[in-house]
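Service request form, structural biology core

Requester: graduate student, group of Dr. S.
Request type: structure prediction, single chain
Budget code: on file
Notes: please return the result as structure tokens.

Sequence provided:
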Amino acid sequence: MTMRNGEHRDALKAAMRRMPGAVCLVTTVDPSEGAPAGLAASAVIPISMDPPSMLISINSQASAHGPIARSGRFCINLLATDQTDLVGPFADSARRDERFSAEDWARHEGVPYLPNACAAIFCEVQQEVPFGTHTLFIGEVAHIVGRDGAAAPLGWIEGGFATIEPLALARA
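Core staff response, request fulfilled:
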């Protein structure tokens, strides 16, 4: 049976809801205004350890897309389970004015980051690859800030928050 594009899209969305992912806030600063920008993202992956680099996939219609492209840098804030309250403003464009209002934020070379995130990974854009509705931004890691202690990373599955914990299995 052949599926049409819309059927593929719906089937892929349903399948991807079953794939757990880390919850991240991707942030940057718009060089034209100096204003912070950001969005909630789960399409974040490490792509190389030599050079250390990360990939983020950003919808071209997202408010942070332009600022990331213009600034050439971004920070991936890997959230902890005690930071769920920060996600709402970054996931809902109607709450955009609340995004950086919490006292949780600091800046590194102008880019906002969360010192209490599991990790804040600062990247310099090395390549942009437009594909469909999104742009893949490949960034080389320039700086990392890690949270002191053993913060549990915040996950996402089936449209809701989840915890991510290692299984108590023997490791190979």
